[in-house]
Amino acid sequence: MTSEGWGTPPVEPISQHYIVCGGNALAHRLVLELVEHYEVPVVVLVTDRTRDHAPQIEQITGVAAVVEYPNLTEEALRAVSIDTARGLALVEGSDQDNIHAALSAQGHNPDIRIVFRMFNQRLGENIERLLRNGAALSGSATAAPAFAAAALGRPNSVEIDGRYLHIAFDDAISSDRICVVADHIDRQDLSKIRLLPEQEGDSAQFVRLAREFGDDGPVRQGGLRRAPEPEPEAGPDSEGEPERGHEPAVGPEVEPEVEPEVERAVEPDPGAEPEEPPGGIAALQALRIEPREPISWARRLRWRVLDTMRFLTNARLRVVLLIALAAVLMAFAVLWYLNRDFGWTVYISLLDLAGAAQPDQQADIAAGTGTGGLWQRVAQVVITICGITFAPVATAIAVEVLGSGRRGLPRNPSAGTRDHVIVVGLGNVGTRVATQLHEMGVPVVCMERDPQARGISAVRALGIPVVLGDGPFEEQLRRARLKHSRAVIALSGDDATNLEAALEARHGNPDVRVVVRLFDDDFAGHFYRTLNNAASRSVSYLAAPAFAAALMGSEVRGTLSVFRHVLLIAELTVEDGSGLIGLNRHDLEDPGGVRVIAARFARSNQLHWGFADRTRRLAPGDRIVVAATRSGLARLNTVLVEEV
After folding, report:
1. Type and span of the H or E element at 87
2. Which uninterrupted H or E stretch holds 534?
3. CA-CA-CA-CA torsion for 234, 239, 240, 246, nearest 10 degrees?
4. Helix 374-404 and helix 315-339, axial crossing angle in degrees, nearest 10
5. Where are the alpha helices (DSSP H) in 314-373?
6. 3-state secondary structure of 461
7. How many other CB atoms are there within 10 angstroms of residue 401's CB atom?
8. Is-contact 478 508, C-beta < 8 A?
9. pLDDT of 307-339, one tens digit each?
10. Is pLDDT of 202 > 60?
């Protein structure tokens, strides 16, 4: 052991390998992606091989070496053979440390592919321009849409050329679906889900059209043919028109060719019990405009008004203001009832509030020239006294706000907070999720135990209330108005803490939706089986496939969640010498795990959705958009790596 570093460097020279710097959960998932799906040699550089996920990383079969260095120095990079490596992934440390390491690695190996994690995405885009072959990704930005969408009970989306791709389940699937992405869905056993099942046969189009024909069509839901209804006996009133149940579902040019085959293939045995469906299905859909969460303007206005009152005043001042306001309104009603002149009533009420009204004189009253009777004088006195009350109250508010500096402190949610989402934990992921929900127009309340958390200032700048304190979750959730919330998202870095927050939330509000950040898949399976109206996501599981694909040179546009499973949306460019040249849709999709959902050819900049020509071969300059599983995208990237 030396003062510079220690560990187990590769015992023999290694080349054409990939280096992962980090020992956190993302590094763990990334190493698994590279070893299991891409089958490439991996060397891992950690700061402490006894902490975090470093011990689990050492147990992964296929890892060439785990090297330990306290800092990411020049010597550490040489120890992992940076000069002969093909790729470097920096997934731990601060933005500044990763930038320094990326520039140092490029100095040692100008051709190396560098993927580095950056929280500041704008800074990451600028650093990409300084690197010859680099990409800056944010794990929290990649995972945040899935958490936000899960809290709202709807799928997240990925924007591609003006369209928003999302995954619809079961009854939400429309007829213009792009492709089926999963079937055999069992919400109690997520291991049964099949991602991107076998391609549909030639008769699928006929079956789809027949189903769209309606319940009275020749094919019922599930593909089983309806039993023919008995034909009416010929009579004097019969005109020979066919019953609606016997009308053809498609044109005559299709019926003789396909319908008999479908009848023979799916005609059920009359004595057999109906077969249970294997489970739900999910399909890829496209929207022209990403839907915003529908929240009425009246509800927003009420939330803002009540929140502003709560922010500017305390409970006693609010009671005084409400009593004075009620008295003024009652006096105003009396004046209007006596005079039946709304404009004059407003005028005299404003003068009374300002203390500028002229009282009646005894001589005027005796001569009958006074402004009104007894009740009008009483109403004016009430308004004048309340007007005198408003002045010191306004002064007290100004002194409290400006003198005590309350604007510099995070504020608790107001009494008007309703239908909001509670975000527990303001780390990188929590800050991203809270910001995204706020941009969607959803009311958000944040909870954080560490007053120095970096996300507090970010959400405070957006006007989002923050509940601070390290007390019991029950008390913190009560202050966050759990009773009136729609969902709770637990996003701390510890599975047990997240589960505790979720269970406390469900105990305080049995109807609230809970979304939990969990790393362990077995833990997540028990979670799904135990709680209803709940979802779990893993940041590393969502982000690692995107990091691995970027390390191999693919441009991953986003990830879509099918419960705990991940579907990648990637755009691939066919370059000179690429292994994609000469392949068609059959070649790309037949091995499984890949669906070509759009294509942009070199001669045209237009993106063709659902490109139907399965025989056209790819040429240099073409671009394809694919929906792929992790293994499917790894297979495509392996073709690229082997051929380049």
Report:
1. strand 87-90
2. strand 534-537
3. -110
4. 150
5. 315-339, 342-353, 362-367
6. helix
7. 14
8. yes
9. 666 655 566 766 777 788 888 888 888 888 877
10. no
Pairing of strands 466-468, 534-537: unpaired
Name the pLDDT band for 360 (thresholds 50, 70, 90).
Answer: low
Q: What is the largest CA-CA distance in the chain?
A: 117
Q: Whole-angstrom Cα distance, residue 52 to residue 35?
A: 20
Question: What's 17's DSSP letter?
Answer: -
How far apart CA 55 and CA 60 sit, in angstroms, is 9
Task: Please choose, from the candidates 562, 419, 433, the residue with its C-alpha nearest in 3D space to the C-alpha of residue 139.
Answer: 433
**pLDDT at site 293:** 59
Cβ–Cβ contacts within 10 Å for residue 317, how many? 16
Whether 437 has a pLDDT exceeding 80, the answer reads yes
Torsion (CA) 493, 499, 500, 506 in degrees, nearest 10: 130
- Beta partners for residue 183, in sequence order: 194
Name the strand (E) or helix (H) holding 446. strand 444-448
616: left (phi over 0), alpha (psi -120 to 50) or beta: beta
Count Cβ atoms below 10 Å from residue 295 Cβ, excluding itself.
15
Residue 10 binned pLDDT confidence (cut-offs 50, 70, 90): low
pLDDT at residue 607 in the model: 84
Torsion, Cα of 378, 379, 384, 388 (10° steps): 100
Query: Which structure tokens are listed for 505?
Result: 């939330």
Q: Which of 516, 471, 523, 473 is nearest to 491 (CA)?
A: 516
Torsion of CA 410, 413, 416, 418, to 10 degrees: 130
DSSP designation for 194: E
pLDDT score at 3: 39
- Which residues have a Cβ under 8 Å from the Cβ of 302 and sit 6 or more positions away? 416
Closest by CA position to 488, among listed 510, 469, 472, 456: 510
Give the mean model confidence (pLDDT) for residues 421-425. 94
- 114 in Cβ contact with 129 (< 8 Å): no
pLDDT, tens digit, for every residue of 64-115?
999 999 888 899 999 999 999 999 999 998 889 999 999 999 999 999 999 9
Give the orientation angle of helix 539-551 with respect to helix 25-32, to 10 degrees.
Answer: 50
User: How many helices and strands (H and E) does the chain possess?
Assistant: 21, 23
- Give the residue from 536, 560, 572 showing the smallest Cα distance to 629: 560
